Amino acid sequence: MSDTIERIELDQNSGGASCGAPKTACCTAPASKWTWKTFPGKDYIFSTWAVVLGGPLLVLLLDQVQFVPFVTFAIQAFLGTLPYIAFAVALIAWLKASGAEAYVGRAFEGRETQAIFLAALFGGLAPFCSCEVIPFIAGLLAVGAPLSAIMAFWLSSPLIDPPTLLITAGALGWPFAIGKAVSAVALGLFGGFLVSVLLKTGAFANPVKIGSSASGCGCGASPQTGRPVWKFWKETERTDKFYVELKTNALFLVKWLALAYVLEAALVTYVPANLIAGVVGGEGVGSIAISALVGMPAYLNSYVAPPLLAGLMDQGMSAGAAMAFMIAGAVSSIPAMAAVWSLVKPQVFATYLGLGFVGAVLSGLIFQLVI
């Protein structure tokens, strides 16, 4: 009987494994086999910061000559966006701490059509590239603005702004510059109204990724007045909320935009612009579609693209293919996609890419027919 009891205790102490030996000499459970899933550092190796820091280090090890230009480009691009990040982070934290986020989102209720038009027009005038627009998209998502209006702004904003309009006109002529401006607003309207229709079918019910800077809620309005508490610093709870949101959103946006600009630096350094654009020469519908496909991951910003495309058009590239390439590249470069992916769920991200591609092709075809 005592042997039975001892064996039962032995089984319990050893996780149910019995070797039939006395308790003092019993074998222990075998050590768990090492697998990649159990490796404690795997989350850090594949983290965003690992890429941000590892990219420049890799350049330093393999191509020391390009290290300083690589890092300088990434830092300068990031510093250029820093004022937008600071403004967006402070605004999000203030709206959430004061309880005003719901009121901002409610301002669009019943005015979706007007909001889409205003977003598309404002996006065409705002001097933001596809990366700089990310902090503002995060803010709009955080306060509950309709996805249709956000998509309109998202699509039109990177395409044209006053300086780009003048540069494009100087390199490619006013017809091309005006055509691009019209395409920017038209693409924003097209995307906004299409998303509006999809929303009515039940699509994109929860577009924001959990844990992103665009998710979460604030303290709510004042229970006494039902209005936002603009002077939130008079209440400890709201002040604490402000600092928490400030820190969380700052870390989130800095992390993803740092990744975006490291990727951008890699593209600019190691993928010659003329090599990318040279692939899309030729005329016809096929060249327009290929131009849009190649232009989406390529990095040719609105200041570099016009002179380069002007040279390619002199060598036989069609105006429609040039328009498709320029629009696709501005809407959805790899740096922008990396940042966008962090904010919204995959179905919204895929819709954004699809709209960018279709819009670029349609713009190229229409421009080719008009010109």
Distance between the termini: 99 Å
The number of strands is 0
The radius of gyration over CA amounts to: 27 Å
Largest sheet: none
Instruction: Work out the helicity level.
Output: 55-70%
SSE pattern? HHHHHHHHHHHHHHHHH
Query: What number of structural domains do the residues give?
Result: 1
Gross morphology: globular
Number of helices: 17
Describe the structure.
The longest helix is centred in the last third of the chain and has 35 residues, at 236-270. The protein has 17 helices and no strands. It is mostly helical and 371 residues long. One of its GO terms (cellular component) is plasma membrane. Keywords: Cell membrane, Membrane, Transmembrane, Transmembrane helix. Its main location: membrane. The chain crosses the membrane at residues 44-62, 74-95, 115-131, 176-199, 250-270, 276-300, 321-343, 349-370.
Task: Produce the secondary structure layout.
Elements: H1 2-13, H2 42-45, H3 48-62, H4 67-98, H5 101-106, H6 112-125, H7 134-142, H8 147-156, H9 162-172, H10 174-200, H11 236-270, H12 273-278, H13 285-295, H14 305-314, H15 319-331, H16 334-341, H17 346-370
Helix pairs in contact: 3-11, 4-7, 4-11, 6-8, 6-10, 7-8, 8-10, 9-10, 9-14, 10-17, 11-16, 13-15, 13-17, 15-17
